[in-house]
Design brief:
Pfam families: Ribosomal_S8
Number of helices: 3
Structural class: alpha+beta
Shape: globular
InterPro entries: Ribosomal_uS8, Ribosomal_uS8_sf
Radius of gyration: 14 Å
Keywords: Ribonucleoprotein, Ribosomal protein, RNA-binding, rRNA-binding
CATH architecture: 2-Layer Sandwich
Number of domains: 1
Oligomer: single chain
CATH topology: Ribosomal Protein S8, Chain: A, domain 1
Strand content: 25-35%
Order of helices and strands: HEHEEEEEEHE
Protein name: 30S ribosomal protein S8
Family: Belongs to the universal ribosomal protein uS8 family.
Helix content: 25-40%
Length: 132
């Protein structure tokens, strides 16, 4: 089975696992998905992630994070750029999610970065998703 949008698959698996109150979710591994998970970990939205080798295809094991009283740390995950419609922004035009309380995940020439890192480095790129 071919998967045309691995990022959307990763985000949907995380969204569904959060609704079901799971602590661990597995998704297919790719370089871009690993970059998205790295940004989510650096920004404090997930506990950790690991790349697990497999015979057919590696997969990512994502450890989800909840608040002290069990509230969701991630309240909204939205795919912005998709295979049918790519969205590119310069460093000054990057969208602010919830006036800076959320982040945008951007694929740049320097790798996958958050919108804050893009503004610091003055690089733009493809806006993959928003997280709040």
């Amino acid at each position: 089975m071919s998967l045309s949008d691995p990022i959307a698959d990763l985000l949907t698996r995380i969204r569904n696992a959060l609704r079901a109150r799971h602590t661990i979710v597995n998704a297919r591994a790719s370089g871009i998905c690993e970059g998205v998970c790295r940004v989510l970990k650096d920004e404090g939205y997930i506990e950790d992630y690991k790349r697990i080798p497999d015979v057919k295809q590696d997969f990512l094991r994502v450890y989800l994070k909840y608040g002290r009283n069990g509230e969701d740390v991630i309240t909204d995950l939205k795919r912005i750029s998709r295979p049918g419609r790519r969205v590119y922004c310069g460093s000054k035009d990057l969208p602010k999610v919830l006036n800076g309380l959320g982040i945008s995940v951007v694929s740049t020439s320097s790798g996958v970065l958050s919108d804050r890192q893009c503004r610091q480095k003055s690089v733009g790129g493809e806006v993959l998703c928003t997280v709040s």
